[in-house]
Design goal:
Largest sheet of chain A: 4 strands, mixed
Oligomer: heterotrimer
Distance between the termini of chain A: 36 Å
Strand order of the largest sheet of chain A: 8-1-10-9
Structural class of chain C: alpha+beta
Helix content of chain C: 25-40%
Chains: A alpha+beta, B mainly beta, C alpha+beta
CATH class of chain A: Alpha Beta
Number of domains of chain A: 1
Number of helices of chain C: 14
CATH topology of chain A: Alpha-Beta Plaits
Shape of chain A: globular
Largest sheet of chain C: 4 strands, parallel
Radius of gyration of chain A: 18 Å
Number of domains of chain C: 3
Number of strands of chain C: 16
Structural class of chain A: alpha+beta
Order of helices and strands of chain C: HEHHEEHEHEEHEHEHHHEEHEEHEEEEHH
Chain lengths: ~200, ~140, ~400
């Protein structure tokens, strides 16, 4: 890429944006209580049978503060930020795909890769502000979090939500979750850029 | 699990790292009072020194060397192995990481057994003194 | 195929076949090509996510066959080969060879439904028969209901003239004569018995049903994936006919045409190329090929196959490939592959894929991995992660103004 890196021009992003559907299902992750146990990653792996190297959900560890003198009280804080696909309102991956293999479903706003169409070029991973789509070396296609669409259509919750040990992940329709957040008086935190209108919400 | 943590690393405090002049990703060698060279461990440097890759983090108190065990396997399908002359499937990713078993301190009297925690009965590792040098 | 589709085929266009894997908008939605839809006189062609389809009452004029640079459309009756045979048969030893359309001179030597049906190969075959000149008797296209094809006709004539220059034919070998627009000829009234009428229906219906049912039988065999379809690379028959027509000439002059009008393109590739292979995969005619050799990556281009469809330029994300301003028409006969990009091959220590060169502007992460080859995508992903961590963006109380609106 040139100095600017891979970016999707605003007009292309706008052009790829269809009218929003009736619902947007998404996740709410409470960062205050996430303990970084990676159960969500393992549950997701078991449910979606991903190969080694492909994780639909990655937990980023952020360390703040330094502890050098054992005589002083340590001021170190560690945060764990699980990052699944944000199922953006204006997915950059959808705008970047040269064959149109990525679509955002009308009925629930889930962004999916059509593995029959994907040619494995990795453009979606370049375009995603979070670097989420990953390459499956065996099938030679790109894969990404599907919000467990196979479970959601049956009325179940995604695997990561079910297996979370600290119960910090919630699944629901974005407006319902927003109301819940306000009721609980939780403070919104923003992870990364918001140019693509990510749906997943974080609170701290 | 190999997706989340494909290899283990030695965690040391930034104060120790500064003293030794290492950063995350650098190599150090460690030796315990009872460690000897074992040829089939791939990270053995001879004379009881074993090499490890370092991660500098404040989650460790200064003066401690912390490392995850159970990595650096050479059995359990990490290398080529045969049954009745037929080659069996193996995956080299199982063998990723660094072996730490040789660093456990052996009983100075019995010499052929590691120190055992008297209450739990498991291998004692927390009190093992180590010499650490930059590679 | 559902019954509605069968019925549609029966009544409309069993004469036209579509080879969709050659269609640029089918291969990539980023292609802006809409030639067929723009020139179809009755607007029967629709370009959609599934490529192109004939969605209306097709009148078999064949303008789309000539218009599509990649030969997506094929006619069963009176296809290009048949018309060339007609030209060869009627052109022998004639002084002037007149071509006209249904609304022009009905007594012309070659009568096509619309002048847009003509292709470059037909023009070249015409002068090979030894005639002195070709006269195109063109009525006022703009007044004809088929007027949408008129821009295509102008382009076709200018390409034919450029080819004539290349084969060293005199400029006045091709003349366009304006004639008045004639009404559509009707068959003179003929009385027909009821038995004859019904048996004519029956023959036609059986013929058409047989054509459709032969396709229905293959439905249960499992649909081909998109990847399989785009790898088929069926023949671009119009290019084959043009090359065959040009083979008769001993030497070709070097003639340049602006690339906006030319039927092929000359491409160039810059060092921004990341060897992603998308242009190779999506090129409809296979003009671009790639090779991962032991030490390097090579991208090659075969001009004689290129149709100037622009898919490569439209899909390339690093914008490393572009088309020169003008194209040499002699490259139609250039069969060898030209190397357009070459770079040293490296293997990423993180994700194990092969990549090329260093990419400007992407910093490797940490000195500890200096010397290790890391692919641009792994670097980019790491940088994005670092930005999320280090920018402390994640602990912001509020986000952009957009987020403010959503929170309300």
């Amino acid at each position: 890429m040139s100095e600017r890196g891979a970016f999707i021009p605003e007009e292309v992003l706008e052009a790829s944006f269809k009218k929003p559907g009736p619902k947007q299902y998404t996740l709410w992750v409470d960062l205050e209580h996430c303990i970084g146990c990676q159960s969500c990653t393992m549950g997701c792996k078991a449910e979606n049978n991903t190969p080694v190297g492909v994780d639909y959900n990655r937990v980023i560890e952020i360390e703040e503060g330094e502890f050098k003198n054992p005589k002083e009280k340590p001021e170190v804080r560690v945060y764990f930020v699980p990052m699944p696909c944000m199922h953006c309102g204006k997915p950059a991956c959808m705008a970047a795909c040269p064959v149109g293999a990525i679509t955002k479903r009308e009925e629930d706003g889930i962004v999916l890769i059509d593995k029959d169409k994907c040619i494995g070029c990795r453009y979606c991973a370049w375009a995603c502000p979070y670097g989420h789509p990953q390459f499956n070396a065996e099938a030679k296609v790109m894969e990404k979090c599907t919000l467990c669409v196979q479970r959601v259509t049956k009325g179940l919750r995604p695997a990561c939500v079910e297996t979370c040990t600290a119960k910090v992940r919630f699944f629901g329709e974005v407006n319902d979750l927003t109301k819940l957040i306000r009721e609980r008086r939780a403070q919104r935190a923003f992870v990364g850029p918001t140019t693509t209108e990510p749906s997943v919400m974080y609170t701290k | 699990m190999a997706s989340i943590k494909p290899q283990n690393y030695a965690e040391i405090n930034p104060a120790d790292a500064e003293r030794m002049g290492v950063k995350t990703g650098d190599w150090v060698k460690a030796k315990s009072p009872s460690s000897r060279h074992t040829p089939y461990y791939s990270n053995s440097l001879g004379d009881g020194w074993y090499k490890y890759q370092v991660r500098v983090t404040s989650r460790i108190r200064p003066g401690l060397f912390s490392i995850c065990q159970s990595y650096g396997r050479f059995g359990a399908g990490a290398r080529k192995w045969y049954t009745n002359g037929k080659e069996q499937p193996h995956d080299e990713r199982i063998g990723a990481g660094f072996h730490i078993n040789p660093l456990y301190m052996t009983d100075p009297v019995l010499k052929n057994i590691v120190m055992i925690d008297p209450v739990g009965g498991a291998t004692q590792s927390f009190g093992t003194p180590l010499r650490l040098e930059r590679l | 195929m559902g019954i509605a589709e069968v019925a549609d085929r029966v009544t409309n266009n069993h004469n036209m076949q579509i080879e969709v894997s050659l269609c640029a908008p089918f291969r990539t939605p980023k292609s802006g090509c809409s030639i067929c839809a723009d020139i179809c006189p009755i607007g029967a062609i629709r370009i959609s996510g599934n490529g192109v389809e004939i969605a209306g009452k097709c009148i078999d004029c064949g303008v789309c066959v000539s218009g599509c640079p990649n030969s997506v459309f094929r006619m069963k009756e009176r296809n290009d080969e048949k018309i060339i045979e007609e030209i060869k048969a009627r052109g022998k030893g004639q002084e002037a060879f007149r071509i006209s359309c249904q609304r022009g001179d009905a007594r012309a030597d070659l009568s096509v439904p619309c002048l847009g049906r003509l292709t470059e190969a037909m023009f070249v075959e015409a002068i090979k028969t030894g005639i002195s000149r070709i006269e195109i008797l063109q009525p006022e296209c703009r007044k004809c209901p088929n007027s949408k094809a008129s821009s295509h006709i102008e382009g076709m004539i200018s390409r034919a003239l450029a080819i004539y220059e290349m084969v060293d034919a005199e400029k006045d070998k091709l003349i366009v004569k304006k004639i008045p627009l004639q009404p559509l000829l009707k068959e003179p009234g003929k009385s027909v018995s009821r038995r004859e009428l019904l048996s004519a229906f029956r023959t036609k219906a059986v013929e058409v049903a047989a054509a459709c049912l032969s396709e229905v039988g293959t439905e249960g065999e499992g649909k081909e994936t998109f990847r399989e379809v785009i790898n088929k690379r069926p023949e671009n028959f119009k290019r084959r006919l043009l090359i065959q027509a040009l083979e008769g000439f001993p030497s070709l002059k070097e003639v340049h045409m602006p690339s906006a009008d030319a039927m092929l393109a000359e491409i160039e590739v810059s060092s921004e190329c990341t060897a992603c292979g998308v242009c190779v995969t999506l090129c409809p005619t296979g003009a671009l090929t790639q090779e991962w050799e032991e030490e390097k990556f090579c991208l090659s281009f075969k001009p004689s196959v290129c149709t100037n469809c622009r898919v490569c330029v439209e899909v390339c994300m690093p914008e490393a490939i572009w088309i020169k301003d003008s194209a040499r028409l002699n490259y139609l006969m250039e069969d060898r592959e030209i190397k357009v990009f070459e770079a040293k091959r490296k293997t990423c220590s993180v994700c194990r894929i092969d990549f090329v060169g260093a990419v400007k502007g992407l910093r490797p992460f940490g000195d500890s991995v200096a010397g290790a080859d890391i692919c641009p995508l792994c670097i980019d992903r790491h940088n994005k992660q670092m930005a999320i961590i280090q920018k402390r963006g994640f602990m912001r109380e509020t986000g952009s103004p957009h987020d403010e609106r959503r929170l309300k």
